[in-house]
Design brief:
The complex is a heterodimer of chains A (95) and B (401). Chain A is of the alpha+beta class and 95 residues long. Chain A is built from three helices and five strands, in the order E-E-E-E-H-H-H-E. The chains are: A alpha+beta (95), B alpha/beta (401). Chains A and B meet through strand 2, strand 3, strand 4 and helix 3 of A and loops of B.
């Protein structure tokens, strides 16, 4: 169902997904697959919310400290695999 | 909870289970019983249902709760009863919840699921149906759920399957009599294109009267565990078997933690809020949705929930090698069998619960105190589930036909 995650592409929060703020970050609920995921860091929640305004994932991660970038990349890959974030159409997206 | 999947990015933050212990902004697994009325009188009914309570929430009050759940982002509720479809406004409320992005998984004994209704349900997105069945044969099922209940459930399943309802659930409470039927349940689910869900028998409600005779034997607990280890990816459990985790090297999938008041709670038909669906007792009542502030206020501020969200001592269990996998087990199972809440689960796999139980005075066991059972005697078909009359036991299931 989901193509492999490509950091060179733009992604955005799936419109079928709602984020519920939680003490640890947020709970993501996918209305289509009815799955829950947990974003376990407030920074990651902010990143996911803003993902659609970046041309590609690598740009979105540019401001993230090096030591955290790999962790966030893996988190985004997991969210893409769960269809929580999806590729932007044509690589461009109105925020 | 069974739908949760945890992304693998936990290096820098405490494990999710530690986060859950402190409670979430809103429940993930909210059970909402819509009525105490039921056409059946199952021997193990966790809510002692039968008669409608005259004080049940009105249609308007139900809508207000749904509005509140929407604003709290409770994305779905587990609706039960009683038999929820007995409410005349059931379908209206179902539509209202779904229209407000509150998905509904409802449990039913099949009463109202005729061919036409099954077709409408199959066409409704965002609704899951769960048909209760406690035996893969008429004999085993009807002994617990009453005469005719097997045929009613099977008819409902046939209607759902014929209507093309995808992945409806067959929900089984595991008892001493149906553990040998696990493969048959799985075959039944396959036959209907359904998904099997098995859960643990709790000594809650009328279940308190039959638990000691009906709960699986130690050997059967091991069978359940290994069967789940083999088939767990296709079977839902409501995370209810985490007390068995110490039986093997691999924990069963799911949240292995008592979620009561942390990620789980119950709203009963009169709007009272309890820590979990298996704990309908004043000791676990946190408040009511009818009070100012509604459900949100209860969830956020009830002193009972605050207490449940603090770390438990673990008591004598703390020094046990299995504690990290079972977390002391089920609070409700301990409470209604008379065991201390910081003691072992009655079905502790190390045998600590079984050792403690015989020493307890049965008369001092907390009684479920919200009884809506039918007043007429109820027959339980199978001789093997007859229970000896006890002086303190006025349960209708002690009366056998």
């Amino acid at each position: 169902m989901t193509a492999s995650f490509e950091p060179g592409r733009g992604y955005r929060l799936n419109p079928d997904v709602a984020l519920r703020p939680e003490p640890f970050g947020a709970l993501a609920y996918h209305f289509g697959t009815r799955r829950l995921s947990f974003l376990k860091a407030p920074d990651l929640v902010a990143l996911v919310r803003q993902l659609g305004s970046y041309r590609c994932v690598s740009d979105a991660l540019a401001a993230v400290p090096d030591r955290r970038r790999d962790i966030y990349l893996r988190a985004l890959a997991a969210l893409a695999a769960a269809d929580m974030i999806v590729p932007q159409r044509d690589g461009s997206e109105a925020p | 909870m069974t739908t949760s999947r945890e992304p693998a990015h936990s290096e820098r933050v405490p494990a999710l289970v530690e986060q859950f212990k402190a409670g979430l902004a809103a429940p993930i697994c909210l059970t909402w019983e819509w009525t105490y009325a039921c056409n059946l009188s199952c021997a193990h009914c966790l809510s002692s249902s039968g008669r409608r309570d005259p004080d049940e929430l009105t249609t308007d009050e139900m809508r207000s709760v749904i509005d509140e759940l929407r604003s709290m982002q409770v994305f779905y509720v587990n609706v039960g009863g009683g038999e929820p479809t007995i409410r005349p406004d059931f379908w209206e409320l179902l539509d209202y919840a779904v229209a407000n992005q509150v998905g509904v998984k409802f449990s039913t004994n099949g009463l109202r699921l005729d061919a036409e209704r099954a077709q409408r349900l199959a066409a409704t997105d965002y609704v899951d149906v769960q048909v209760s069945l406690d035996g893969a044969s008429r004999q085993v099922n009807d002994a617990v759920r009453g005469p005719g209940s097997y045929d009613m459930a099977l008819r409902a399943m046939e209607n759902l399957a014929a209507a093309g309802a995808r992945d409806f659930k067959i929900s089984v409470v595991m008892t001493r009599h149906n553990v040998p039927q696990l493969d048959e349940f799985a075959a039944l689910a396959d036959r209907f294109g359904a998904q099997l869900r098995i859960t643990r028998l709790r000594p809650s409600g009328r279940g308190a009267d039959v638990w000691h005779e009906l709960h699986p034997t130690d050997q059967q607990q091991r069978e359940i565990y290994s069967w789940l280890a083999d088939h767990g990816d296709r079977v839902l459990t409501g995370d209810s078997f985490f007390h068995l985790n110490a039986l093997g090297a691999t924990p069963l999938p799911g949240l292995n933690l008592c979620g009561a008041g942390r990620v789980v709670c119950l709203i009963d038909p009169i709007g009272d809020v309890y820590a979990c669906p298996f704990a309908i007792h004043d000791a676990f009542k946190a408040g009511t949705v009818r009070a100012p502030g509604g459900f949100a206020e209860v969830w956020r501020s009830a002193p009972l929930f605050a207490r449940l969200r603090t770390e438990t001592s673990g008591g004598a269990c703390r020094s046990c090698s299995a504690y990290s996998s079972c977390q002391g087990g089920c609070m409700a199972a301990k409470f209604f069998t008379g065991l201390p809440l910081d003691g072992p689960d009655p079905e502790c796999v190390k045998g600590h619960g079984a050792t403690a139980l015989p020493g307890l005075d049965r008369g001092l066991r907390p009684r479920p105190d919200k009884d809506h059972s039918h007043r007429d005697p109820v027959s339980v078909g199978m001789p093997s589930v007859r229970i000896p009359a006890k002086p303190c036991d006025s349960s209708p299931v002690a009366v056998t036909a």
